[in-house]
Design a protein that fits this description.
Elements lengths: L3 H9 L14 H12 L24 E4 L10 E4 L6 E9 L2 E6 L17 E6 L5 E4 L2 H35 L5
Antiparallel strand pairs: 1-6, 2-3, 2-6, 3-4, 4-5
């Protein structure tokens, strides 16, 4: 069963992507690769700098939500408008009141080098670092695929557990199985 985000993360973690062959390995390159490869939008044109992403034509008509601890969802794109260019990443999960994101070029040093923490990695941030969510309808499709996968796994484990429990009871009571 396809698991688009899980497969995407496994493929790219620890590597670098220069989607548009401009300015080497930037955070926006990872988002373009994600939109194309994982969410199925096809070739992505210019999205500008990270902090300007919400104003790019690609995100016209798509949800732009002020980030709070209550509304971040796995696979959302989050934007920080700090600094000259800002930063953008993909929400991997929310853990203990912090955002764990999949990001590229997140150190603020050696920009675009793809080395020393600038490769694609998972990193935890306080909620205050990012300030906006860009949400795509395509993430609902990924969510439903992931939910189906997880429910299939739960049912498989439950079936195995039922068989194991029956076998254990048979041994416990000396009943032939």
């Amino acid at each position: 069963m396809p698991r688009p985000y899980v497969d995407f993360k496994s493929k790219w973690l620890g590597k670098c992507v220069d989607y548009d062959n401009c300015y080497k390995y930037q955070c926006v390159d990872l988002i373009k690769q994600y939109l194309d490869e994982c969410l199925g939008y096809g070739k992505i044109g210019s999205l500008w700098n990270a902090k300007d992403l919400p104003n790019s034509r690609f995100f016209d008509g798509r949800a732009k939500i002020k980030l709070t601890t209550l509304n971040a969802r796995q696979w959302d794109i989050v934007v920080a408008n700090k600094g000259t260019l800002g930063h953008v990443a993909i929400v991997d999960r929310v853990v203990n009141g912090k955002l764990q994101v999949l990001e590229q070029n997140g150190t603020g040093k050696n920009s675009g080098s793809g080395k020393d923490g600038n490769e694609i990695r998972l990193k935890e941030y306080e909620f205050g670092f990012f300030n906006m969510i860009l949400r795509s309808d395509a993430t609902t499709k990924i969510f439903n695929q992931e939910l189906s996968f997880v429910l299939d796994k739960i049912n498989s484990v439950k079936k195995d557990l039922d068989i194991t429990t029956d076998y254990y009871r048979a041994i416990q009571w000396g009943i032939g199985y």
